[in-house]
Each structure stands twice: as structure tokens, then as C-alpha cells.
Amino acid sequence: MVTCETRESALARIGRALADPTRCRILTALLDGPAYPGRLATELGLSRSNVSNHLSCLRGCGLVVAGYEGRQVRYEIADAHLARALRELVQVVLAVEPRDECEPA
């Protein structure tokens, strides 16, 4: 059953999903349209089991949905608003110090 969540909780779920580089790559690939785990694995140079595990996380966070086509499962971004927001986010230019990662203060 799908439930309504507070805005903060929804943002936390998105943040959790985006915190992993592989999940970001999968979401970016899904911006081009629905895809199957095998195709995503090939395109991204990952194992199918790795992609499936990340898709499971993204599905649990509510960011992707699965559609069954016979024995195959097709994944897509769960909401058009989310897809639009992700497209906007990938165009953001951040003013950061020349470090590889964010460091705790």
C-alpha cells in the first residue's frame, strides 16, 4: 500500500538514493526511458546482480517502479515530477573546493 509521507521524509528518501554513485548512474540512465536490468548492467558496465540490488533500493525508496512484461521486469522513474527534478539537478553547477568528496565539518 502506498502511503503519503511528509516532505522531509520524501527528501530523505531521495537523498539516500542519490548518496550512492551507482544509484545515481542508474537513475540518470532511466531518464532516457524505461529499461531492463540486463540492459542497464551492460550499459553501465555493472553486474546484473549489482544493478538488481540497487533497483530494489530505488524501488523501496519509491523512486522507481517495476512493470512486468511476461518474465521480464522493466523499470522506470516513478513520477514525471521526479524525472523533471532529476533532469534539473544534473544541470546544476556547484561551487566546490577542489576535493574529491564532501567532508564532514
From TrEMBL:
Segment forming the signal sequence: none
Q: What is this protein called?
A: Metalloregulator ArsR/SmtB family transcription factor
Coiled-coil stretches: none
PROSITE patterns on file: HTH_ARSR_2
Q: Which GO terms describe its molecular function?
A: cadmium ion sensor activity; DNA binding; DNA-binding transcription factor activity; lead ion binding
Q: Which InterPro entries match?
A: ArsR-like_HTH, HTH_ArsR_DNA-bd_dom, HTH_Metal-responsive_Reg, WH-like_DNA-bd_sf, WH_DNA-bd_sf
Classify the source by domain of life: Bacteria
CDD domains, per the entry: HTH_ARSR
- HTH arsR-type domain boundaries: 3-97
Q: Which GO terms describe its biological process?
A: response to cadmium ion; response to lead ion
